[in-house]
Design a protein that fits this description.
Layout lengths: L10 E5 L4 H12 L3 E6 L2 H13 L4 E5 L5 H15 L4 E4 L14 H22 L9 E5 L12 H21 L5 E7 L6 H6 L3 H10 L8 H12 L10 E4 L10 H13 L2
Parallel strand pairs: 1-2, 1-4, 2-3, 4-5, 5-6, 6-7
Helix pairs in contact: 1-2, 1-8, 3-4, 4-5
Amino acid sequence: MSITLDFVDKTVLVIGGTSGINRGIASLFAEHGARVAVASRSQEKVDDTVASLKNLGAQSMGFTVDVRDAEAVKKGVMEVHENYGELDVVVSGAAGNFVATAMGMSANGFRAVVDIDLMGTFHVMQAVYPCLKKPGASVINISAPQAFIPMEAQSHVCAAKAGVDMLTRTLAMEWGPEGIRVNSIVPGPIENTEGMKRLAPSAEILEQVKESVPLKRLGSTEDIGNACLFLGSPMGDYINGAVIPVDGGWSQNGTGVMRSALSDFAQGTVK
């Protein structure tokens, strides 16, 4: 049997798909023939991304939404469903982060990250479920190493992303009987992304991060996109409830220098 990564006549929705890793994922699905819808909070970014995807030859649309607004998420997803039909692949990647210790952030700051990362993922899951192809849909949540590696100055993200991975595992059990697969991808340090700019703000730290990866390189958005293509294709038909690091082996050493850098930050701000 020959299997190719062909997404012609498939509908892909990427939440948070107008920047960074998620935009790279959307572009890769477009290059492989999919109809691609994207969503984010910025109308300007949505318009720019949709135009870019169309330039790749894809049928594309987008909508603006704050994933913290459950009803708005449902409305946007339904618009995609009405235009493109059942959803074959959903990538949920909206996220928020900043560097702060538990005692150095407000309750509102902690809540904001939990609301975007965890509650936002829950809202997306509830919104897409009625629109998923059954059987056959693949749902992919974008997680983070903080889900299973504790890091100082990242308590909010650690808590939120751990919740995302447990939501992934639970939905894999609840939706599996209908032929829906739900998995998480855990990106490592990805070059030219906003997340890396926040966590490795200097060229020196960025180089140290690269050296801490066993493969001795930073990842690319295409690396994460390729993993999504695999999970969204027939090649991934028996993968369900998995949390898959795509990080060059970075998490094997506890993310190395990143934890040290965050620890230094924490020690410098906690009195």
